[in-house]
């Protein structure tokens, strides 16, 4: 990890956690490719991601996720299933990144990193799942497709910025988290009102 300074490490850790909540398999694939070709030095805990087998599996799942995420209702079912996958995976990726750099304090910092990475993954996942569920109530397909393509673009962009331009990445991440928190609040409020309307008995 000697080629990564502290600012880059923090940015990469935050990017990994956040991106895992949106596109876990794409995140794993991109990290594996970067490590395989030597673009980014991976710590021991993440070097397995550069394995051709892991990259092949991640690539296949990324393709499945890409297609599933474009189909209304299927995307929400996929998100519901991945509630149990994205958050712990994001925590594990961030812990693997940080603990490999932290030396004698690797275990303690790994736990802290796992908590923060899991929190970022949970925020991104909740925003994605709630926004897409709200979009699925609309009969037109374009909002759903647009949100999906935005996620496809955001993940590689933010991972690249975390590595190449961390001081650009940090304000963008802060803005993304504010937007996501707002979306979570509004979408859950909208979905709750919709459920109440559906459950309300019709007048005789």
Please specify the SSE layout and strand pairing.
Layout: H1 6-22, H2 24-36, H3 52-68, H4 74-99, H5 106-135, H6 142-164, H7 166-199
Helix pairs in contact: 1-2, 1-4, 1-5, 1-6, 1-7, 2-3, 4-5, 5-7, 6-7
Quick one: biggest sheet? none
Q: Could you say which overall geometry the principal axes of the C-alpha atoms support? A: globular
* N-to-C span: 70 Å
Tell me roughly what share of residues is in helical segments: over 70%
Number of domains: 1
Q: In terms of per-residue confidence, which ranges show pLDDT below 50 for 5 or more consecutive residues?
A: none
Give the SSE string: HHHHHHH
Distinct helical segment count: 7
Tally of extended strands?
0
Which percent range describes the beta-strand content?
Answer: under 5%
- What's the pLDDT, averaged over the residues? 87
Secondary-structure class? mainly alpha
Radius of gyration: 18 Å
């Amino acid at each position: 990890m000697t080629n990564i300074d502290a600012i880059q490490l923090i940015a990469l850790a935050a990017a990994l956690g956040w991106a895992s909540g949106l596109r876990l398999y794409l995140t794993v694939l991109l990290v594996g490719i970067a490590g395989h070709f030597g673009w980014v030095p991976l710590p021991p805990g993440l070097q397995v991601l550069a394995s051709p087998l892991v990259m092949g599996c991640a690539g296949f799942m990324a393709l499945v996720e890409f297609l599933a995420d474009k189909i209304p209702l299927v995307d929400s079912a996929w998100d519901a299933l991945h509630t149990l996958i994205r958050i712990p995976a994001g925590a594990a990726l961030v812990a693997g990144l940080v603990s490999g750099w932290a030396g004698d304090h690797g275990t303690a910092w790994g736990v802290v990193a796992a908590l923060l990475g899991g929190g970022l993954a949970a925020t991104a996942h909740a925003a994605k799942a709630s926004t897409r569920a709200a979009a699925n109530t609309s009969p037109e397909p374009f909002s759903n497709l647009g949100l999906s393509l935005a996620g496809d673009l955001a993940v590689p962009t933010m991972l690249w910025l975390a590595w190449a331009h961390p001081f650009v990445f940090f304000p963008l991440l802060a803005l993304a988290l504010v937007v996501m928190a707002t979306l979570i609040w509004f979408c859950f409020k909208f979905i709750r009102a919709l459920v109440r309307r559906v459950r309300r008995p019709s007048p005789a």
